[in-house]
UniProtKB/TrEMBL annotation:
Domain Peptidase M20 dimerisation intervals: 209-351
One function term, GO molecular function aspect: metal ion binding
Superkingdom per UniProt: Bacteria
Organism: Bifidobacterium bohemicum DSM 22767
InterPro entries per record: Cyt/Met_Dipeptidase (IPR051458), Peptidase_M20 (IPR002933), Peptidase_M20_dimer (IPR011650)
Annotated protein name in UniProt: Peptidase family M20/M25/M40
The enzyme's E.C. designation: 3.4.13.18
NCBIfam families xref list: PRK07907.1
Length: 455
């Protein structure tokens, strides 16, 4: 294809777009929440739907159930290929069909499982993360149709939101079905709905469960209160001790780094506060550019805390407390090293010598892109063409831990991390949505990348 065909492709994406929105609406209605059971019937149905959609684009897509490392049944994965010319380059298209749970539908303005269009955005759980990725691949393959000049392989995963437990054995068992020159992971996003980006880095992640014990059993808070601090207070002190006065983590051995490829543009604080719904009086924690705090410095969130509920509480001093820390690690730090640094810190800083036990859970490595890879340059050109503005590359604070695994197994593959999200997408939150105009431009971008790679 020549450059002239960009307008032809744009026309094709445009005329196919109502089908793509319909696909997304059907996908949202499938409620493919992997947290409700990776091996559930609802996940199988979701995988089958995705396979049928890709089959319409000429991919011999099929559903394969993976196996966990311990031999038990794993996720329903969609794999397949469309081989046009054995001599042409091969591109692996990745997305995931599982979605985050909806713990409280009343926090949504629309039904989370009914796609609803409002002001150019389509709302629904998984509309962006990662129904948008599936929509991009489907739309790009449809736009190229018989003009596709590369071999395409697809992998639409069914357990990404659960940390991809069966991923490694699955790729190892299906090496040939994954082997590619370029891998497009459509599970991240753009600077904004208007400004496209390649994702230059992702943080890694590791979770720790911390148990703090001060007493053999709960005791009367009047009789013992004063010298004995309750386990909740001691936990709060322990958690607080990880930060300095600016709210920056102060843990030896927990790494930070510079933005990958240099910082092209910092994140605007006002927009960031508005997108996050941050209360007005709150001062942002940490030092350095906002972008580096989000992308390449570590962060820790308490994502679970076992304590007595307020309702029905009575006058006792809690003997133990348990909390879960979710640690986001700098892209280049091994998560096990980060977990060890935090574990050592927590044990060394046990307030008043309370007993602190730490258990390490899931871990995933971060990732950085190769800005000089040929495919990165092609992708930037395609984004410029499709969106009509200069791309601004960005890191991501989120994690996609299988990318470094893919890169390790296929060291020569060039990985492009793209995707449909923008700062207003509310992935994992109530009122998740995708910007439809941006989705159209993302589809055109991917069609242009595939077309360029096929030249
Ligand atoms: N699509 C996200 C990753 C992401 C988040 C990319 C924000 C760009 C912006 C992915 O689905 C995700 O949520 N990953 C998990 C991984 C975890 C389960 C190991 C995450 O980041 O929490
Ligand atoms: Mn995702
Ligand atoms: Mn997600």
């Amino acid at each position: 294809m020549t450059a002239l065909d960009a307008e032809e492709l744009r026309g094709r994406v445009e005329s196919d777009f109502s089908r793509v929105v319909d696909l997304l609406n059907q996908k949202i209605a499938l409620k493919s929440v992997s947290a409700e059971g990776i091996t559930g019937e609802h996940m199988k149905r979701s995988a089958q739907f995705v396979a049928e959609q890709l089959a319409q684009e000429g991919v011999d897509a099929r559903v394969v159930q993976s196996r966990n490392p311990d031999g038990t049944d794993g996720a329903y994965e969609v794999i397949g290929s469309k081989i046009v010319d054995p001599a042409a380059p091969t591109v692996l298209l990745y997305a995931h069909h599982d979605v985050q749970p909806v713990p409280d539908a009343s926090a949504w303005s629309t039904d989370p499982f009914v796609g609803t269009e409002i002001d150019g955005r389509l709302f629904g759980r998984g509309a962006a993360d990662d129904g948008g990725g599936i929509a991009i691949h489907s739309g790009a393959l449809r736009a190229l149709g018989d003009d596709l000049g590369v071999n395409v392989k697809v992998f639409v995963e069914g357990e990404e939101e659960m940390g991809s437990p069966s991923f490694i054995p699955f790729i190892e068992a299906h090496r040939d079905e994954f082997d590619a020159d370029v891998i497009i992971v459509a599970d991240s996003g753009n600077w904004s709905a208007e400004v496209p980006s390649l994702t230059t880095s992702l943080r890694g992640n590791t979770d720790l469960d911390v148990t703090l014990k001060v007493l053999e059993h709960p005791v009367h808070s009047g009789q013992f209160g004063g010298p004995i601090l309750d386990a909740n207070t001691l936990s709060a002190m322990l958690i607080g001790s990880m930060y300095d006065k600016d709210g920056e983590l102060a843990i030896e051995g927990l790494a930070s780094q510079e933005p990958v490829g240099g910082l092209q543009r910092d994140i605007d604080e006002q927009g960031f506060r508005a997108d996050g719904g941050v209360v007005e009086s709150y001062r942002l924690a940490g030092r350095d550019s906002l972008a580096s705090r989000l992308w390449v410095k570590p962060s820790i969130a308490v994502i679970g805390f076992d304590a007595h509920p307020v309702e029905g509480s009575f006058n006792v001093i809690a003997d133990t407390a348990r909390f879960r820390l979710s640690i986001r690690t700098a892209p280049s730090q091994r998560p096990e090293d980060a977990a060890k640094a935090v574990t050592d810190f927590l044990i060394a800083h046990a307030p008043f010598g309370a007993e602190v036990r730490v258990e390490t859970l899931d871990q995933g490595m971060g990732w950085s892109m190769d800005p000089d890879a040929e495919a990165s340059k092609d992708a930037m050109t395609a984004m410029r063409e499709a969106f009509g503005v200069e791309p601004v590359n960005k890191g991501e604070g989120g994690s996609i831990p299988f990318i470094p695994e893919l890169q390790r197994i296929f060291p020569d593959a060039q990985v492009l991390v793209t995707g449909p999200e923008d700062p207003k997408a509310n992935a994992h939150s109530p009122n998740e949505s995708i910007d439809l105009k941006s989705l159209k431009n993302n589809i055109l971008t991917e069609a242009l990348i595939l077309s360029k790679l096929g030249e």
